[in-house]
Automatic annotation (TrEMBL):
Residues 221-243 are annotated as: Disordered. PROSITE patterns: HTH_GNTR. Residues 15-83 form the HTH gntR-type domain. The lineage of its organism: Bacteria, Pseudomonadati, Pseudomonadota, Betaproteobacteria, Burkholderiales. SUPFAM superfamilies: GntR ligand-binding domain-like, Winged helix' DNA-binding domain. Keywords: DNA-binding, Transcription, Transcription regulation. This is GntR family transcriptional regulator. SMART domains: FCD, HTH_GNTR. PANTHER family: TRANSCRIPTIONAL REGULATOR, GNTR FAMILY, UXU OPERON TRANSCRIPTIONAL REGULATOR. Transmembrane segments: none annotated. GO terms for molecular function: DNA binding; DNA-binding transcription factor activity. Signal peptide: none annotated.
Length: 243
């Protein structure tokens, strides 16, 4: 990727590095270049080939796994699966560019993720709960100025969708990708007249409420906490749009 070329494009309309990697690997799998049963290159090999970080590679592989294109065997590797021949649900992250676009996505997420949180509370495993805890710990560690909170934020929501034991929740969230996180498109804190640190601290508390309900295996509390979390984002954007 040439820095001088990408610098001329609006940052909010560029696909993320993870999305570019997902699209590249998806094309190779669907086109037959990587056949069902083939072992994908290691994380280190993908990092070198695409010039991206390990975090980017892991996010991309997580999305591919949620999409049913690969499966990962821990300690062994990641293998390609036979692509689904049915029509794909597609949302181009580059089209999520305005406050109105983000509000529309949030409306979808409220419907989708509220129920996902309830199902996850009923069906999650201890291993999935531990992965959610790890994602939240990474989010909290990134609260310092300049830290990457988007990757653990998206991972937390994706892990909840995977804990539903219903692949279609994870499929939908994976297709949307990290673009579902409003601050990847706009300055959410600024729109809400908040500084970055208090804004992210509040998001962290909302995440913890969701996690605690799932940990207690309380479906109704999990649904309520997720609806509050996403509803707060929608309300903040609605007020900004009104202004």
């Amino acid at each position: 990727m040439t820095t001088s070329m990408s610098a001329d494009l609006p940052a909010r309309r560029r696909p993320s590095l993870a999305q570019e990697l997902v699209e590249s690997l998806s094309t190779r799998i669907r086109g037959g270049e990587i056949r069902p049963g083939d072992k994908l290159p290691t994380e280190s090999e993908i990092m070198r080939a695409f010039g991206v970080s390990r975090t980017v590679v892991r996010e991309a592989l997580s999305r591919l796994q949620a999409s049913g294109l690969v499966e990962t065997h821990h300690g062994v590797g990641t293998y390609a699966l036979k692509p689904n021949t049915g029509g794909d649900f597609r949302v181009d992250p580059a089209d999520i560019a305005t406050v109105r676009d983000i509000m529309v996505i949030l409306e979808l997420r409220i419907c989708l993720e509220t129920e996902a949180a309830g199902l996850a509370a009923s069906r999650r495993t201890e291993a999935q709960l531990a992965d959610m805890r790890e994602a939240l710990d990474q989010f909290r560690a990134a609260l310092e100025p300049g830290g990457d909170t988007v990757t653990p934020d998206f991972r937390f929501h994706l892990l909840i969708s995977q804990a539903t034991d219903n692949k279609y929740f994870a499929d939908l969230l994976s297709h949307l990708g990290a673009a579902i996180i409003p601050r990847t498109r706009i300055n959410s804190a600024k729109l809400g007249d908040e500084d970055r640190e208090p804004y992210l601290a509040r998001v962290n508390r909302e995440h913890e409420d969701i996690y605690e309900a799932i940990r207690r295996q309380d479906p109704e509390a999990a649904r309520a906490a997720m609806r509050t979390h996403l509803g707060n984002s929608r309300e903040r954007l609605r007020r900004a749009q009104d202004r």
